[in-house]
Automatic annotation (TrEMBL):
<dbReference type="InterPro" id="IPR005545">
    <property type="entry name" value="YCII"/>
</dbReference>
<dbReference type="Pfam" id="PF03795">
    <property type="entry name" value="YCII"/>
</dbReference>
<comment type="similarity">
    <text>Belongs to the YciI family.</text>
</comment>
<dbReference type="InterPro" id="IPR011008">
    <property type="entry name" value="Dimeric_a/b-barrel"/>
</dbReference>
<protein>
    <submittedName>
        <fullName>Dehydrogenase</fullName>
    </submittedName>
</protein>
<feature type="domain" description="YCII-related">
    <location>
        <begin position="1"/>
        <end position="111"/>
    </location>
</feature>
Length: 121
């Protein structure tokens, strides 16, 4: 089953705390998960200052610079993994280096029943 591990942290302190992970550690962990065959995708995101929020309300498109909500922690990246169950996904998430200075939200990916002709489009 696919699980999305969303990495949240405070951008202002992400790389400044003594327990903050170094890029090399994050890359090594990603490679270890990839070598285990459980990694589907993983990416770090640019600063929240580069975000654009899009909404469609009453047929009108609204575009706002910045994140959707003001929070202490921002979405910093993600891991999309293939795990046997939630327990295994939690074990993978718990070892993500950024978990030491932020939080990891683990969510199952919803499977949609898409008709065959739409999948081939």
């Amino acid at each position: 089953m696919k699980y999305l591990c969303l990495v949240y942290s405070n951008e202002q302190t992400l790389h400044s705390l003594p327990e903050s992970p170094r890029d090399e550690e994050c890359l090594a962990y990603s490679e270890a998960v990839r070598e285990s065959g459980r990694m589907i995708a993983a990416e770090a995101l640019e600063s929240v200052q580069t975000a654009t929020t899009v909404r469609m309300r009453n047929g009108k498109l609204s575009i706002t610079d910045g994140p959707f909500a003001e929070t202490k922690e921002q979405l910093a990246g993600f891991y999309l993994v293939d795990a046997r169950d939630l327990n295994e996904a939690i074990q993978i998430a718990g070892q993500i280096p950024a978990a030491r200075v932020g939080s990891i939200e683990v969510r199952p990916v919803r499977t949609l029943n898409v008709p065959q002709q739409l999948r081939q489009a």
